[in-house]
Amino acid sequence: MATLNTTNAVGTQNVATNGARQRRKVAQYATGGTQGNGDILNFFSVRSGDIIDSLLLSCNALSGMTDVNFGLRLPDGTDVDENLFDDGQTLATALTRQEKRVQKAGGADSALGIETLGKTVWELLGLASDPFLTYHVTADIKAAGSASGDIIMEMVYTAGD
């Protein structure tokens, strides 16, 4: 694919595209009120060279589920950064498409600031180079609830392949 350089806007730098395609994944967990403290929900896989553009959380009001971390683990369950995207999120109140990829005003929605937009997963993890690994986007339940309902994650990403 050809490289596109955009220079016609005042104050902008050349922007190159590498032909990568933006993709979308959606995962849903139907909770039956049987989740326990320490349970880990694997939503989907992402590669270390991918760029996560958006990570959206939606859920029903799941009473009692007041401490959930959102982050990355290896496929074998090894914790890489269990709260990379959020630490201590409550799911006791219904949420609709709450952004987890970057902080909103006040910094309450994500551990990552706007300066991390456009970074690959390995850069978000603070690594010196791409380890060419696959990670799982996960929810680590610290304080489980007894309510039944759905937890839905949507990820828009640019594949690094």
Structure description:
With 161 residues, the protein is mainly beta. It has one domain (22-158). 2% of the residues lie in helices and 45% in strands. The protein is built from one helix and eight strands. The chain has one helix at 121-124, and strands at residues 22-32, 40-47, 51-59, 67-73, 79-89, 95-99, 134-143, 148-158. The strands form two sheets. The chain has a four-stranded antiparallel β-sheet with strand order 1-8-3-6, with no helix packed on it. It has a four-stranded antiparallel β-sheet with strand order 2-7-4-5, with no helix packed on it. The longest helix is centred in the last third of the chain and has 4 residues, at 121-124. The chain is globular, with a radius of gyration of 17 Å.
Number of helix segments? 1
Helical proportion? under 10%
- Largest sheet report: 4 strands, antiparallel
Sheet with the most strands: spatial strand order: 1-8-3-6
Mean pLDDT: 83
Q: In angstroms, what separates the terminal alpha carbons?
A: 14 Å
Overall 3D geometry? globular
**Rg for CA atoms:** 17 Å
* Total count of strands: 8
Spans where pLDDT lies below 50 across 5 or more residues: 1-16
- Look at the helices and sheets and give the structural class: mainly beta
Q: What order do the helices and strands follow?
A: EEEEEEHEE
Total domains: 1
Strand content: 35-45%
A few lines on this structure:
By secondary structure, this protein is mainly β. The chain has 1 helix and 8 strands, in the order E-E-E-E-E-E-H-E-E.
